[in-house]
């Protein structure tokens, strides 16, 4: 909601589920295609648990998250399977014992410092195979002031800066 996303029931839970899918993909060091499938599975799992409609969520998540009408059909089966698993976890009475933040969090976040060059930013992205990094100031490294992406850098290089 604060990010401009949907304020309905499906918006926040889809983002939370997608975040868990992305975090799990990071832990497993999966490639971009496999990460997308886990992000879809997480979103579908959350939506399916809230609305108690597993098949609907499995079809809804890829449809909403892809702009084009063609999406990865192989993502539907993991979405259906993940819904039942996530539903079991969400309604578990001892959920506080099942999920520990440090198990899915990254303690050493790679950041771009405010005074880094664009080449340094690209080198950091390439080193950990990501398309975007948080930007911080040297004096406050835990406070994110912006995000920079490869697309931003390429656009700037070719004179297509939006600012």
Write up what this structure looks like:
The protein has 163 residues and is mainly alpha-helical. It folds into 2 domains: 10-104, no CATH class; 112-157, CBS-domain (Roll), CATH 3.10.580. 57% of the residues lie in helices and 11% in strands. The chain contains 8 helices and 3 strands, in the order ααααααβαββα. It has helices at residues 10-28, 32-51, 54-65, 76-90, 95-98, 101-104, 118-128, 150-157; strands spanning 112-113, 132-137, 140-149. β1 (112-113), α7 (118-128) and β2 form a beta-alpha-beta unit.
Given as residue ranges, the uncertain stretches (5+ residues, pLDDT < 50) are none
The largest sheet has its strands arranged as 1-2-3
Q: How many strand units? A: 3
What's the main sheet like? 3 strands, mixed
Shape: elongated
Helices and strands, in order, run as: HHHHHHEHEEH
Structural class: mainly alpha
Number of H- or I-type helical stretches: 8
Helical content class: 55-70%
Strand content: 5-15%
Number of domains: 2
**N-end to C-end Cα span:** 25 Å
Mean pLDDT: 77
Rg is 18 Å
Describe the structure in brief.
The protein is mainly alpha-helical.
Helix and strand arrangement:
Layout lengths: L9 H19 L3 H20 L2 H12 L10 H15 L4 H4 L2 H4 L7 E2 L4 H11 L3 E6 L2 E10 H8 L6
Parallel strand pairs: 1-2
Antiparallel strand pairs: 2-3
